[in-house]
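Entry:
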Amino acid sequence: MHAAGIVINDKPLYEVLPTTNNNEVGYVACLEKDYLEEQGFLKMDLLVLRNLTIIDECLALVRKYEGVALSPYSLPYTDPEAIQIIRDGKEMGLFQLESLGMKRAIKEVQPTSFEDVA
């Protein structure tokens, strides 16, 4: 099951596809995404990024308590302290870096720039 995969159709999926009822999310198609797309179903990956909300809330707190209006687009990508935090394994809450696999990769690669992380 893909956590963010959604199949869109004009009929209920359980009428046209083999499905199983997952109590947490409802009906789940029992087919691979490539097959669904080959059969003409619209399949989309929709990621709900809690991290965007967290960034927005952090910027609001900085504005409220420090009186500084920051934009995420104006923050530097060359901050050596930020890279060191990632290298030290303190990336909890950093989207796409907090998984176990990424933690292992970062430990092995030891990035020195955001380009290394990307």
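Residues 50-66 form the longest helix (17 residues).
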